[in-house]
Write a structure and sequence with these properties.
It comes from Roseateles rivi. Keywords: DNA-binding, Transcription, Transcription regulation. The protein is mainly α and about 110 residues long. The protein is built from four helices and two strands; from the N terminus they run αααββα. The protein has a single domain, classed as Orthogonal Bundle (Arc Repressor Mutant, subunit A). Strands 1-2 form a two-stranded antiparallel ribbon. The longest helix is centred in the C-terminal third of the chain and has 27 residues. The chain is elongated, with a radius of gyration of 17 Å. The chain starts with 9 loop residues before the first helix and ends in an 11-residue tail after the last helix.
Length: about 110
Amino acid sequence: MQHWSEKLPLYQQLAEHLLQNLLEGDPPEGEAMPSVRQLAHQHLINPLTVARALQLLDAQGLLENRRGQGWFVRQGARLRLLEQQRAAMLNTEWPQLRQRLARLGLGPQDLQWE
């Protein structure tokens, strides 16, 4: 069962969870996403919340809604997502992490890279 935080709206948290699944190739590109009802039942949330999360992924160019068939993972979605996440890591998260490591007096010799 998914544990939800109160820091972000539920639909954003679900979208993030679904993004992680897409990064892992679940479901594969070109394949259907689980239905809104299935996701709502699986995560114990309102179907409107699920629909909003899927619309968010659609707006990011990762999903497409096929009338009468449901939501499908777009071709190239995983690569697009990897590129977005890599850019965020290198441009935002890494500089912040480097600053924090420097404040703590930690250098490359202190880090285990496996």
